[in-house]
Amino acid sequence: MQPRMVQLGAVLCDTKGREIQALNTLITPDGWQVDYDSEQVHGWTTEDCAFLGIPAAEAMAAFADMCARADVVGAHHLAFDRRILEIEAAFHPEAKMPEFRKGICTMIRSASLVGIPYGDGYKRPSLVEAVNALTDDEIDDDDLHDGFQDARYCMKVMLELDNLGVLEDAP
């Protein structure tokens, strides 16, 4: 079964972390259902999405507009998030695929700073591990899995990576 986008959360901020724009929406199901395992992770049901959601193409257009205004787009597992957007774009050819001037994966960029040994290098940290190691916040897994809250925590990690100079040489 193909994973589908259930929620889209994003925050556009300045270099000081001041919020300029936010996006937090569920996606209206168009033939898909939230599977039980996913529901247990993020708490959203098919009924929640049907009642509170907006069409995927509309959510993607709003996100694409935010990305167009951003110098850098960050995500904690950027490759996964891009793949989910590509899947939705395949189901919705009318959807505007977001374009990034520069994409930063905070999971990859924070690995050596979080410093969890793995093989000859460092483990790619979970968002919880990155937030707890790099910010003043102390969170656990129960604080995550809401797309909008995750975006805010990712923003905090990204700002700290920038403060540490880790993003200067990012492609």
Q: What attributes does this structure have?
A:
171 residues; alpha+beta; Nucleotidyltransferase, domain 5; two-stranded antiparallel sheet; two-stranded parallel ribbon; 8 helices; 15% strand
Instruction: Kindly report how far apart the N and C termini lie.
Output: 33 Å
The outline comes out as globular
Residues in helix, %: 40-55%
User: What is the CATH domain class?
Assistant: Alpha Beta
Cα-based radius of gyration, to the nearest Å: 16 Å
- Number of β-strand runs: 6
pLDDT averaged residue by residue:
94
- Estimate what percentage of residues fall within beta strands: 5-15%
CATH topology label:
Nucleotidyltransferase, domain 5
What is the number of helices? Answer: 8
Q: Specify the oligomeric state.
A: single chain
Number of spatially distinct domains: 1
Order of helices and strands, N to C? Answer: EEHHHEHEHHEEHH
Low-confidence stretches: none
Q: Within the largest sheet, what's the order of strands?
A: 1-2
Structural class: alpha+beta
- Outline the biggest β-sheet: 2 strands, antiparallel
CATH architecture: 2-Layer Sandwich
Describe this structure in words.
The protein has helices at residues 36-42, 46-52, 56-69, 78-91, 106-109, 111-114, 127-134, 147-163; strands spanning 7-13, 19-26, 73-75, 103-105, 117-118, 121-122. It is of the alpha+beta class and 171 residues long. The strands form three sheets. The protein has a two-stranded antiparallel ribbon with strand order 1-2. Strands 3-4 form a two-stranded parallel sheet. The termini are far apart. The protein is globular, with a radius of gyration of 16 Å. The chain has eight helices and six strands. The chain is 44% helix and 15% strand. Strand 3, helix 4 (78-91) and strand 4 form a beta-alpha-beta unit. It has a single domain, classed as Nucleotidyltransferase, domain 5 (2-Layer Sandwich), CATH 3.30.420. Keywords: Exonuclease, Hydrolase, Nuclease.
